[in-house]
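Key idea: predict the complex, not the pieces.
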Amino acid sequence: MSAAPAPGAAGKAPADDTARPVGKSSWTPYALLTPGMLWLGVFFVVPTIMLIRMSLSSGTAFSGDGSFTFAFVDLQWSNYGDAWNQYVIDTPIFQKSLIYALIATVLTLVIAYPLAYTIAFKAGRWRNFLLVLVIAPFFTSFLLRTNAWQTILVDSGPVVTFMNDIGLLNFLHTVTNTPDSWPSWAQIFPDGITAEDRVLATPLAVIIGLAYNFLPFMTLPLYASLERIDVRLIEAATDLYSSAWTAFRKVTFPLSLPGVVAGTLLTFIPAAGDPVNAALLGSASDALMGNAIDAQFKATGNYPLAAALSALLMFVIVAMVAVYVRRAGTEELV
Amino acid sequence: MSEQTPSIAADSTSTGGGADLHIVDVTKRFASFKAVDDLTLTIPAGSFFALLGPSGCGKTTTLRMVAGLEEPSEGRIVIGSEDVTHRKPYQRPVNTVFQSYALFPHLDIFENVAFGLRRSKKKDVRNEVEAMLELVELSTYARRKPTQLSGGQQQRVAVARALINKPEVLLLDEPLGALDLKLRRQMQIELKRIQTDVGITFVHVTHDQEEAMTMADTIAVMNAGRIEQMGAPMELYENPVTTFVANFLGQSNLIKGQITGKSGGDALLEVQGQRMAMPTARVHSERDEVWVGVRPEKMQISRTGTPTDGENAVTGVVTDASYIGVSTQYLVDLPWGQEVGVFSQNLSTEGPLSAGDQVVLHWNPAHTFALDAAQDADAGSEKIEGDA
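Result:
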């Protein structure tokens, strides 16, 4: 019975019926890729090459004839040396950027995970409404929202008053202000993570701003991976002698790891280079890499050094991400 | 709906493992919907028990209440002599083989099977898991991930993962639903073998009557949250007590008739003007208005001529004949306009009858059953459209 249609189909194989889909499928993927590839080529690959070219050039914008010289025989590797000396050795701005971003990422994860978990498993018919709330901040400009935190964290405002009243600020200040016992920490946070009685213009304000601004980038990937988990797997775990907590540790959390990796990357990478939160919420000593690059570019006009700083930051982040993704064991994700 | 026998005669000599499972007056409501309606059931230790019914009949809810994944609105669940009604799933001596298996995709086969042992802090996990993988013939797949296994292999992992914990009762929720027909047959025999080997009480939920009949030694047919009938597969098939069971398990021809009297062990019937007889023990109706039921394969079909003495008989005209090899399936129009099905073995050398032939249908009175005519003659037959 099943053999019946075979001979006819085989005999007509090269006929018009089959030829068209095959021919179509051979170029369709390329056609679909073209716009994205063009965009990436023009706005990512070319600028990256220009950035690296600039980082190996000499000259400044505001002195001499204002032009830059690039020569293969005379690559200005000293720009990278200067960047390293000034921003890693002399002032630990580079390390500071990574540490601020790291703390903000951990804070974001701690806030976003329960939020995403609740939306995915417990929200019922409120699910879509809560998801809209998560992305609602995008309706207002990033700058405005960051500016608003100046008001929220104002010295005599209710938030800071409350944090003072429960002794949180004093506690955080005392615990993190350790100039002698841990010198490398003291280099990054010379006066502790926050002041004794205020938040604005301290590292804490910058970290809060970063955590706030990148919260949706953490929440949405976490939600996406949690929502995909088959509840029967959790039931199976409890059927196999797991308490609710063990089932979470052994089943739910491991299965949400792709979301954790995606969310932390989407938070950490932009946070490490962000100049806005440090500029608006921090003090002068909270300047991060984003601010340093900004200053070299706009104030000093040292384009090659600014380019070298940018490239350095990019290389380090790419290397860190590569190690992180491998360690997290979620190669199938990235 | 009638004759709910609350317990089965404990004819299965307990083979050691497992414990009796008692479901006592259990009701489960979801908002205003009663999924399970005052269910009482005793499943003896060591038996292979099937809960059979169409989707939405409450069989899966019953299973989930035994597993602890749902809490009964009323009633008690007792395993052995322990009341487990309000225990958490992980505090019950019960394990489940989930529908579509629910294997942990991030763990390999070995760790999937070891999961329960590790949680209950058992020693000697390695040897136990290896022995269990041996039993289900998957030793060489220990380090594969579930997605790298075929459906049948995943099914065996799911069974191994539950069985290794030596539960008192093993629950199976449509365990073969995702497999193709051939594999399903194979796994039916396999599961039966495993059950005989380990001697644990198996409670098996399915909508597939053939699967239930192949594996289980006792079947409870469920409909609308209640048990319609419970018994050995043969008893259910040969002597159904409701129209639902008559239609859900196989097919039945139900003809309107009336009980006119009783003599000795026999009941006398009048069916559309014809006199018939049947054993009184097979009458399952309080009233005289009945559905007279006969299975299609119990009817013999012949080209006129007189049937053997003492047989029930009706005349009719063949409207359709489907030759399917082992048998021919006929549709026969009876004089009062009803169509009945007849399965006839191809014993004749003359070839099958064809449409338009005048025939006599006759059958042994002992194959007749009578059901309350107040019941819907089509109850339980809608599964033909529903299930593939």
